[in-house]
Specification:
Oligomer: single chain
CATH architecture of the domain at 81-105 and 189-395: 3-Layer(aba) Sandwich
Shape: globular
Largest sheet: 9 strands, antiparallel
Structural class: alpha+beta
Number of strands: 43
Helix content: 10-25%
Distance between the termini: 93 Å
CATH topology of the domain at 81-105 and 189-395: Collagenase (Catalytic Domain)
Number of helices: 13
CATH superfamily of the domain at 81-105 and 189-395: Collagenase (Catalytic Domain)
Length: 813
């Protein structure tokens, strides 16, 4: 290839590269063109594999990105509880009619993480729409990343975000502090708390904040009416805000989005009037159909130089848990910072004062600069006060609990006077059993339930809830209802495995609990561990929490506090926010876990109710009580020893006996467990099965006997041959004794059978040959001698195993 051709190909490569970059810009909306003021770098993320420095941690992914003159190793894992499973998107038709949709939104493609080498770094990325989109903050410098469209090599653009790029007339932030202070009686924490607190000394807890977003018409037009792109950016903003609030243990869960696609429903002009009018509108229109702790109005207009406004401490308070945030050509990082700032006001955080500090030059709640992503010690103190006042509304996980959504047809919840509810119109068109008016389709008997299939009731005897453990009981369909009968289980106090007792559908004992925490080799520790640790009254050993105080266990209740284990081989991988402790004293080792105020994850270390704590005693509510307290009028005698009592104190009979007392013949179950199936008599299949087995056995015997007889040889045969003469001996079935004495060259054959055997001997003299054959026990023996310069050959075979030995000797002539 000539130099000219090489330069030509290089030019073509460079032109194609920048063409892809230009195409990536052409695919952006107007909202993305004016956000960045610096040139991007082109990077290709490389996925890393291996076991070095945490890369083998379960659920974590690692990528290498080269930008800013160096390589950055990014570690990240999927963020849970970001988007609600049933998130609604509301829009409006040309005539102003409200439309609700629940589109499929991938919820396992949003990531949080950090950059290796920078403990204060922040990573918030998503891969839901192809490639990486989001932000990274490394050494107090923010970057945004997005994929290049139509790139065959997974190229991305990385923008460096400088704080002085964003142009706002004023960097002041506002909140409605005067009015809310009077109406909500919000009190500041004392200056003493602020001075003594540090942004690094707070023990965080887990909180859940349900969040809703309303997009005004100006921002919708700014996105050129592209609702898909608008939703994508909203989800990325929420992901970044959620990553910022990880420091407080707050999970921000987006419950719904409303887009004013036709017009604004409030007048957007004066900043305070906009906030007031929006809050009034959302109380009447949004709150009944979309639950939330906080709702924000996103708009593309600055209000008197303020990027946002919200009520101070208004979270969880109807009419005040709202705010407005201006987009106005901001980058993803800056807009997310303003949203996080206004959210902080709703959570009770005031503006930072000069005495407030964090690890950056400015903190999230400062009022003069673009917010950073760090909370100050003052913000931690304000937040702690808010959690004490409003902890109930943020304590439960909304993904697992029941969130009131307002009674209406189309919310996916079957309510009064509704036969079914298939949700939005889109889902109802695919439901053959339910109509959009929440009525059953013609001919349909049901539309949901464990005993409903193809719009019909399942027949009686169909298992709808199987038994999951020895303390559980199965249930069957009745044939007249779409619902499975009530979930029943064995009565509390019934003995179960390892000297345990059934209690609330579980078989509990401390050995089993230790194995669940520390592995199959672990077991309950010496009783001295329980006495030493559970009487301390701290987060590692206690008998419950009373307010913010740990309750010390009485000596009689030490086995009902926190479980203590021994024989621990390895430290388990537990959920986040969990601590494992180890104590060794007086020759005993004690392992356990902690639990403290504010934690919302299940406490795996508490001794479960129903656990045995002594002869005839069990643990109930951290107290060791007598089993006689579990009063019941049902016993094994009540069920005539043919069944077991359930939690409704009724007999659940074995198969073959009928409820209620298992006295008469029947098919088992209880009066509330549904109709068990009629078991067929298995004995009718027993005789054909036995006959088949005997036939196969007989066939195999005949086959092996036939193969054995085929392999046996009917008669042995020996045929020695020489160039001069041949001697052949063939045994006969009868006993023979033959002797021949030849003269000079003739043959002598002698046969002497002994005990059913044969002996054949042949001798040749004067250069002749001598052959002797003697079979023994089914074997053969052949001996040949040559004399006068000849050869001596001896062959011996015993039990059909031949053995040959040849020797030569020189004779004197």
């Amino acid at each position: 290839m000539t130099m000219t051709e090489a330069l030509f190909h290089m030019t073509i490569f460079v032109l194609l590269h920048w063409l892809r970059v230009l195409l990536s810009f052409s695919g952006q909306t107007q909202a993305e063109h004016s956000q960045y003021h610096s040139s991007p770098e082109v990077v290709i993320p490389l996925k890393l594999t291996g076991t070095s420095r945490g890369r083998n941690a379960p659920g974590w992914l690692s990528y290498s990105l080269y930008f800013g003159g160096q390589s950055h190793i990014v570690h990240m894992k999927v963020k849970k509880f970001l988007l609600s499973r049933h998130m609604s998107v509301f829009t409006y038709t040309d005539h102003g009619a409200l439309l609700e949709d629940q589109p499929f939104i991938q919820n396992d493609c949003y990531y949080h993480g950090y950059v290796e080498g920078d403990l204060e770094s922040l990573v918030a990325l998503s891969t839901c729409f192809g490639g990486f989109r989001g932000m990274l903050q490394i050494n107090d410098i923010a970057y945004e990343i997005k994929p290049i469209m139509f790139s065959a090599t997974s190229e991305h653009l990385v923008y460096k975000i400088d704080n002085d790029e964003t142009q706002f007339p004023s960097m002041r932030h506002g909140f409605m502090g005067e009015k809310i202070a009077q109406q909500l009686d919000f009190q500041e924490v004392t200056n003493l708390t602020l001075k003594q607190s540090s942004s690094e000394d707070w023990w965080t807890h887990v909180w859940f904040v349900t969040y809703a977003v309303v997009v005004d018409h100006t921002l919708y037009l700014h996105y050129e009416r592209n609702t898909s792109k608008l939703q994508e950016d909203i989800y990325n903003v929420v992901n970044v805000v959620d990553s910022i609030y990880d420091a407080l243990g707050v999970n921000l869960l987006l419950f719904g989005v409303e887009i004013w696609t036709e017009k604004n429903f409030i007048v957007v002009n004066d900043v305070k009037n906009t906030l007031r009018d929006f809050c009034q509108w959302k109380v009447k229109n949004l709150s009944p159909r979309l639950p939330h702790n906080v709702v924000h109005l996103y708009m593309n207009k600055a209000l008197r130089g303020l990027p946002g406004l919200s009520f101070l401490g208004g979270i969880c308070k109807m009419g005040y848990n709202c705010g407005v945030v201006s987009f106005l050509n901001l980058t993803l990082k800056d807009f997310a910072s303003y949203v996080a700032h206004e959210l902080g006001h709703s959570m009770g955080m005031n503006h930072d004062k000069d005495t407030c500090t964090c690890r950056q030059s400015s903190c999230l709640m400062n009022s003069r600069k673009i917010p950073s992503i760090r909370f100050s010690n003052c913000s931690y103190a304000y937040w702690w006060k808010t959690t004490i006042d409003n902890w109930k509304c943020m304590r439960d996980n909304p993904q697992t609990g029941n969130i009131p959504t307002g009674k209406r047809c189309g919310n996916g919840v079957v309510e009064e006077e509704e036969e079914c509810d298939c949700g939005s119109f889109k889902y109802c068109t695919k439901d053959p059993c339910c109509l959009a008016n929440c009525m059953l389709s013609p001919g349909a008997l049901c539309a949901f339930g464990l005993c409903c299939k193809h719009c019909k009731f399942l027949p009686p005897g169909e298992l709808c809830r199987q038994q999951v453990n020895e303390c559980d009981l199965p249930e069957w369909c009745t044939g007249i209802s779409h619902q499975c009968p009530q979930d029943l289980y064995v009565q509390d106090g019934i003995p179960c495995l390892e000297e345990g007792y059934c209690y609330e559908n579980r078989c509990n004992n401390r050995n089993k609990q230790c194995r669940e925490i520390f592995g199959k080799e672990a077991k309950s520790a010496n009783q001295r561990c329980y006495k030493e640790i559970n009487t301390q009254g701290d987060r590692f050993g206690h008998c419950g929490i009373n307010g913010s105080m740990y309750v010390k266990c009485a000596i009689s209740d030490i086995l009902c506090g926190r479980v203590q284990c021994e024989n621990v081989i390895e430290i388990p991988v537990l959920r986040e926010h969990s601590t494992v402790h180890f104590i060794h004293f007086n020759g005993v080792s004690c392992w356990g876990t902690d639990y403290h105020f504010g934690m919302t994850i299940p406490d795996i270390g508490e001794v479960k109710d129903g656990t045995k704590c002594g002869p005839g005693n069990i643990c109930i509510h951290r107290k060791c009580v007598q089993m006689s307290l579990l009063k019941s009028n049902c016993s094994a005698q009540t069920c005539n020893m043919r069944g077991v009592c359930n939690n409704k104190h009724q007999c659940h009979c074995k198969y073959g006996w009928a409820p209620p007392n298992c006295l008469h013949k029947g098919i088992g179950g209880s009066i509330d467990s549904g109709t068990p199936p009629q078991k067929s008599d298995k004995r009718i299949y027993l005789f054909p099965l036995l006959f088949l087995l005997l036939f196969l056995l007989l066939f195999c015997c005949i086959f092996f006997c036939w193969r054995k007889s085929k392999k046996e040889k009917p008669e042995p045969q020996t045929q020695p041959q020489q160039t001069e003469q041949m001697a052949q001996t063939q045994p006969q079935q009868s006993v023979q004794d033959v002797q021949t004495q030849p003269q000079q060259g003739e043959q002598t054959v002698q046969t002497q059978p002994q005990q059913g055997e044969q002996r054949v001997e042949t001798q040749f003299q004067q250069g002749g040959q001598g052959v002797q054959t003697q079979p023994q026990q089914g074997g053969q023996r052949v001996q040949t001698q040559f004399q006068r310069g000849g050869q001596r050959v001896q062959t011996q075979s015993v039990k059909s195993k031949p053995s040959l030995r040849i020797s030569s000797s020189k004779l004197n002539r």
